[in-house]
Design brief:
By secondary structure, the protein is of the alpha+beta class. It has one domain: dinb family like domain (Four Helix Bundle (Hemerythrin (Met), subunit A)), CATH 1.20.120.450. The chain contains 5 helices and 3 strands; from the N terminus they run H-H-E-H-H-E-E-H. The protein has a 3-stranded mixed sheet. Strand 2 and strand 3 form a beta hairpin. It is globular and about 45 Å long. The termini are far apart.
């Protein structure tokens, strides 16, 4: 797994977040706060999984894409506002990238993985952890960066 690629994906998403100016989400979609809360929670799970891989412990990773809206809203309420969520995402993303730097050959460790990115990507079984991290960098983070961009109010 290329930690530099993961770092770039986070940098691009965080730059989109820093640009601000987000409108409320259309009905049934996540707003900027909910998107960032989802990413924070997902980072925390990926940190746990990466630490388990580094320790040689079994781990199952479940993406939070299917997380219920009330759970996302509870995270938003816990952090209070978009600035606090942004700060937390910067912390979790930095920690994850630092852990990925340490993976080396352990990136090939199979992890029982359950994730869904719309209809385009469904994983329900063992996958090398480095591949899951690669999908996170190349598919998951850009998807949410695009969602944030679409929420920006036209100037």
């Amino acid at each position: 797994m290329d930690s530099a690629g993961l770092g770039r994906a986070y940098d691009e998403l965080l730059a989109e977040l820093a640009a601000g100016g987000f409108a409320p989400a259309p009905p049934g979609q996540l707003g900027a706060e909910q998107i960032v809360a989802h990413l924070v929670a997902n980072d925390e799970l990926m940190i746990e999984a990466t630490e388990a891989v580094l320790a040689g412990s079994p781990y199952a990773y479940y993406d939070l894409e299917t997380m219920h809206r009330p759970q996302v809203d509870a995270l938003v309420a816990e952090f209070g506002d978009l600035d606090a969520l942004d700060a937390r995402l910067r912390t979790t993303s930095s920690r994850l990238v630092a852990l990925v730097d340490r993976l080396g050959p352990a990136a090939g460790t199979p992890v029982d993985t359950h994730l869904r990115e719309g209809y385009d990507l469904v994983v329900d079984g063992p996958l090398p952890w480095g591949r899951v991290l690669d999908l996170h960098a190349r598919v998951h983070l850009p998807k949410h960066r695009a969602q944030l961009r679409m929420l920006r109010v036209a100037e």
